[in-house]
Write a structure and sequence with these properties.
This protein is an alpha/beta fold and 415 residues long. The protein has a single domain, classed as Alpha/Beta hydrolase fold, catalytic domain (Rossmann fold, 3-Layer(aba) Sandwich), CATH 3.40.50.1820. It has a ten-stranded mixed sheet, sandwiched between helices. α7 links the parallel β7 and β8. α9 packs across α13. It is globular, with a radius of gyration of 21 Å. The relative contact order is 0.14. About 7% of the residues have low confidence.
């Protein structure tokens, strides 16, 4: 068989094999009544043929030119990407990262007519607070790995006396090992219903805490508006955009609005994903280098990196996140969510359940002043930080853990 024929054969196998990645149940999840949907545990295992195909694509990349001396000015720096791709092809050990991911228990369950992936890590403290953590784009559940132990067993990590949590980390619909939607309309509101069903109906938590960032933050806001009786409290990082604010403004609010408007060019990616996601989908799904360029540039721009990407994220970190998108073929669905949420009818109104905010000065979006947040939320805790950016659970897990423990600890002490 010629090399070209072998490549074609491997690529024909790819779609089928990717579909098998999330279909490896090990044991049924025992919690919940028989009337509830029963989660099935699974182990992440990418077939060898998918890894061989990836290596082949990385080897045969057709690189673009780059104007001398432009670095990251025009977008993803080709010189850095060449280094990253060489490491991905020749050094990166997916099997080691796969084993690291599988140290946690992974589950699938059908909610809202779709199969959702989640991790459920229970504290040894039976009275721990149930907490749902939701990622955004272009991240994945990998964002939450470092913070989970700090929340589940705080005493073992120098946080004695802090409240502990039963942590649920879910992959958003169409992301990672969750099912890719086969219908339109799966945006924030629909996703909120799925996550409420997961926490309340499947896992059996009458009330629970939620934290989300980026897209996940918008989903937990919808949960608080649609299912307030279930939500103990909402914890958020950042406020994206200025929609809904009406004059008069305080001087701090006016400065926030002006700073937000000045970030316009950095938000143009969202305009494309909200209007023409399928055009972009072809490049992200066919080229691992195209996927890396689109995502890695955002990690550099949105995080507390001072322009040095690996100041915050190792190559292994970046590539593990990329692999979650690549091996599941979920990049097209992830960008389509932008189209869906921009065309759906969202629940509106002020969130009256308690809200805690952690605002970073190093995020893509300028930090809002407290009075701006109080227009939209029942703010019970407001904190600001000069370290960590858009992916705070990943960049500063101990900081976020302390904030969650302080906010939800105060709420539960009142009960």
């Amino acid at each position: 068989m010629s090399r070209r024929t072998a490549r074609r054969s491997r690529r024909r196998m790819l779609a089928t094999l990717c579909g098998l990645l999330t279909m490896m149940p090990l044991t049924s999840y025992a919690q919940g009544s028989s009337a509830r949907a029963q989660p099935e545990r699974f182990s992440i295992h990418v077939p060898d043929a998918v890894l061989i195909d990836l290596h082949d694509r990385l080897t045969h990349t057709r690189w673009p030119d780059q104007l001398p001396g432009t670095g990251w000015e025009y977008g993803a720096d080709t010189a850095y990407l060449r280094q990253l791709i060489t490491y991905w092809r020749d050094t990166f050990d997916w099997r080691a990262q796969e084993a690291r991911l599988n140290r946690f228990e992974h589950f699938h369950v059908s909610v809202g007519g779709m199969r959702i992936h989640f991790m459920h890590v229970r504290s040894s403290n039976a009275d721990a607070v149930p907490l749902l953590l939701l990622h955004g784009w272009p991240s994945s559940f990998v964002q939450m790995l470092e913070i989970i132990p700090l929340l589940v067993d705080p005493a073992a990590h120098g946080l004695a006396g802090s409240p502990s949590f039963h942590v649920v980390v879910a992959s958003l619909p169409g992301f990672g090992f969750s099912e890719i939607p086969t219908r339109t309309g799966v945006g924030f509101r629909v996703s909120a219903g799925m996550m409420a069903e997961l926490m309340h109906d499947v896992l059996g938590y009458p009330r629970y805490a939620v934290r989300g960032s980026d897209l996940g933050g918008n989903i937990v806001r919808q949960m608080a508006l649609l299912y307030p009786d279930q939500i103990l409290g909402v914890h958020l990082t950042g406020m994206i955009g200025t929609d809904g604010g009406t004059p008069p403004y305080t001087p701090a609010e006016q400065r926030f609005i002006e700073a937000t408007n000045a970030t316009g060019s950095e938000r143009y990616y969202a305009r494309l994903q909200m209007t023409k996601p399928q055009t972009l989908a072809h490049a992200l799904n066919d080229s691992p280098v195209g996927l890396a360029a689109w995502i890695v540039e955002k990690f550099r721009a949105w995080s507390d990196t001072d322009g040095v990407l690996e100041r915050r994220f190792s190559k292994d970190d970046l590539l593990t996140n990329l692999m979650v998108y690549w091996v599941t073929g979920s990049a097209p669905a992830s960008v389509r969510m932008y189209y869906e949420f921009s065309h759906e009818s969202l629940a509106a109104g002020r969130i009256e359940v308690p809200v805690g905010m952690l605002m970073s000065t190093k995020d893509l979006f300028p930090p809002a002043p407290r009075e701006w947040g109080e227009r939209f939320f029942n703010v019970q805790r407001w904190s600001e930080t000069n370290v960590g950016g858009h992916f705070l659970e990943w960049e500063e897990p101990a900081l976020v853990a302390r904030e969650l423990q302080a906010f939800f600890g105060a709420l539960t002490s009142r009960r």
